[in-house]
Structure to design on (682 residues):
């Protein structure tokens, strides 16, 4: 038996920097960090943000001079540009982190089981935090979400079907209008429903009327997201359907829509996430109840954003604490919807491969 | 010799070939088309209803509804209603706050978009894109509360620093040392709210830079910054402008976050660090709960002005973005 000499190629990355090349820049950063710590200790710059606010510019300048000494002016400019862009990314990241942390830290102390089982019918916002809860607001928000889904999802998906399947003479114009509609300020949507429904028809403030206002904001989101998914369905599928003798209606209903199903679900969830926390339209259309109202189509309702809003406006310690707890509940709902949309959406992508 | 058999059955008449859709298709097309047209109808209705409700105000106040700096109405001794309603001061406030937001948000978003497209390792990129999408789905009241309780203490200190060293520039001057709840801080909150949209539009445009041009620049010996400066930025400039305008549209119409952070005072204020101001949307909800019938009409009219303003900005933005995106294909 002969032994063959097997040579396995080890992957090599000649472009990668060797430790020797990285070392100086690490040393520079360590030096800058020490310098910054000294500055914060002995001069007027104070606070956590001062560390970041000093480290980035001083570090950038130090790297600039090192690169200029070592590689010349062009490389030095490149170094500065890349660190400015990384700073931009950090500047986006910090507020998100801060918002999430603040909500959890400030909201958690007010969370208790009673919060989910009682309403504010016999309690007031200025009572100690244990009194009363969010039941009416959570139920109200769920009603609003369900009613808005019932109105906006069919409308959004049908509009997307018009734009992708029928491509009628007006599709460019309608596309333009949908984009314009997605820019309608939420306060205008509320004012419109107020003047078009509450002022002109016998309907008064209720969960249903509020969900009409929310639908104006939700439809464009659902339309645009569904449209993107429908455009990804290969044309071969549609042609295959037509070649088998199916009518356009059957092709769309039995081939295109099932193929895009999970994407359409994602689109709907994105729409819900868009409206779940909307406050401004509710001010004109919801009424803002303190008690649980099991009827979504008549009588005033409560909702989480409205509750947060009222608590903040009162401004006492207890009411603001209530707002933070409610905002934590709302944020958890939004995060859950967001994660759900990602999971369903990634399934769609996987299925196409 | 073969005889052709007589056909045993009658030959069916040739099928009529037509492009006329079947009944089911006609129903389908009618339903889908009419729903598609609903968005146009709704937009028109929004304009019509708000304009008709505000009509009485427009007629009575005339042009001073747009340019007037006063918002007061009362009943004098003879029972006559005296009104002097104008949203001029709030229009100034709207533009001021939105401009602060743009000045802060656009550079950050463009840098972040460039980082995501050209620098970030794939894992960092995916994580950051998720974070930005998440940021876009935060409720505006959350931004408002965060701005009031967390951002304001820091931002007040920054405002004092700016005022101390740049106070000689008129916009950074203040009448009185009141730095809390200023348009500057409201603008910072709005900036965090519009960063996601400006970033994602810019990223989309940057990622469509033709690859051959980028590679050509590298082949000529350019480094990353030179490529960005000479190829990517000139190509993507239109998209950045369009994305910024979409952000501007958001910033003009934002209600709750501005109301939470800003000290709503009905007076024209050009000093962005001074703690007073407002915007049209927050003005509407500030005066809504105890408005008289005539005032309600005026507020609906203000909503109409806001609607037209955001619509114009958005139309322009869509036009610019669409042109920038299709150019790459």
């Amino acid at each position: 038996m002969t032994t063959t000499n097997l040579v396995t190629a080890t992957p090599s990355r000649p472009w990668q920097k060797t430790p020797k090349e990285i070392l100086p820049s690490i040393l520079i950063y360590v030096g800058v960090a020490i310098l910054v710590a000294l500055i914060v200790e002995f001069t007027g710059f104070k606070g956590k943000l001062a560390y970041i606010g000093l480290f980035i510019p001083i570090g950038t300048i130090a790297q600039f001079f090192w690169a200029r000494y070592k590689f010349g002016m062009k490389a030095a400019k490149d170094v500065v540009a890349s660190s400015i862009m990384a700073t931009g990314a950090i500047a986006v990241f910090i507020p998100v982190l801060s918002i999430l942390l603040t909500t959890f830290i400030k909201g958690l102390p007010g969370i208790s089981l009673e919060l989910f089982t009682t309403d504010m019918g016999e309690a007031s916002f200025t009572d100690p935090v244990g009194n009363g809860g969010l039941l009416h607001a959570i139920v109200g928000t769920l009603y609003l979400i369900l009613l808005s889904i019932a109105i906006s999802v069919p409308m959004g998906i049908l509009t997307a079907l018009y734009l992708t399947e029928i491509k009628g003479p007006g599709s460019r114009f309608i596309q333009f209008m949908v984009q314009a509609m997605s820019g309608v300020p939420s306060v205008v949507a509320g004012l419109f429903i107020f003047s078009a429904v509450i002022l002109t028809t016998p309907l008064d403030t209720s969960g249903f009327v509020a969900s009409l206002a929310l639908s104006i904001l939700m439809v464009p989101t659902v339309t645009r997201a569904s449209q993107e998914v429908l455009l990804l369905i290969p044309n071969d599928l549609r042609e295959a359907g037509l070649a088998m003798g199916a009518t356009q209606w059957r092709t769309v209903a039995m081939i295109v829509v099932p193929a895009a199903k999970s994407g359409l679900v994602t689109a709907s969830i994105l729409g819900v996430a868009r409206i779940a926390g909307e406050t401004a339209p509710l001010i004109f259309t919801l009424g803002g109840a303190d008690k649980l109202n099991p009827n979504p189509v008549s009588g005033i309702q409560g909702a989480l954003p409205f509750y947060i809003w009222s608590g903040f406006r009162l401004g006492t310690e207890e009411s603001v604490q209530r707002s933070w707890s409610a905002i934590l509940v709302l944020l958890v709902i939004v995060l859950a919807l967001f994660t759900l949309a990602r999971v369903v959406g990634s399934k769609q992508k996987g299925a196409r491969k | 010799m073969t005889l052709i058999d007589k056909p045993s059955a009658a030959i069916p008449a040739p099928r009529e070939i037509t492009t006329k859709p079947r009944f089911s298709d006609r129903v389908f097309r009618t339903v889908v088309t009419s729903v598609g047209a609903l968005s146009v109808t709704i937009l028109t209705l929004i304009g019509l209803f708000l304009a008709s409700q505000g009509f009485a105000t427009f007629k009575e106040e005339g042009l001073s509804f747009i340019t007037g700096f006063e918002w007061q109405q009362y009943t004098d001794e003879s029972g006559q209603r005296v009104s002097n309603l104008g949203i001029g001061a709030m229009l100034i406030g709207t533009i001021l706050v939105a401009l602060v937001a743009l000045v802060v948000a656009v550079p950050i978003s463009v840098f972040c978009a460039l980082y995501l497209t050209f620098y970030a390792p794939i894992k960092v990129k995916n994580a950051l894109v998720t974070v930005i999408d998440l940021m876009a789905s935060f409720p505006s009241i959350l931004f408002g509360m965060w701005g009031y309780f967390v951002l304001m203490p820091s931002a007040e200190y920054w405002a004092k620093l700016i005022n101390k060293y740049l106070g000689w520039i008129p916009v950074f001057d203040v009448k009185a040392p009141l730095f809390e709840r200023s348009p500057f801080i409201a603008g910072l909150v709005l900036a965090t709210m519009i960063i996601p949209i400006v970033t994602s539009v810019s990223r989309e445009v940057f990622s469509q830079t033709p690859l051959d041009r980028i590679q050509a620049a590298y082949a000529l010996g350019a480094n990353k910054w030179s490529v960005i400066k000479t190829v990517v930025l000139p190509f993507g400039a239109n998209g950045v402008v369009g994305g910024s305008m979409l952000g501007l549209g958001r910033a003009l119409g934002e209600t709750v976050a501005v109301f939470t952070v800003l000290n709503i005072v009905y007076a024209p204020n050009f000093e962005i660090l001074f703690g007073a101001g407002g915007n049209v949307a927050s003005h509407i909800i500030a005066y809504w709960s105890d408005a008289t019938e005539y005032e309600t009409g005026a507020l609906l009219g203000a909503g109409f002005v806001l609607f037209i303003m955001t619509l114009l900005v958005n139309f322009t933005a869509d036009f610019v973005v669409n042109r920038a995106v299709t150019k790459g294909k």
Remarks:
- The two ends of chain A are 45 Å apart (CA to CA).
- Chain A has two domains: 19-109, 135-352.
- Chain A touches chain B through 91 residues (CB under 8 Å).
- Residues 64 and 79 of chain A are 6 Å apart (CA to CA).
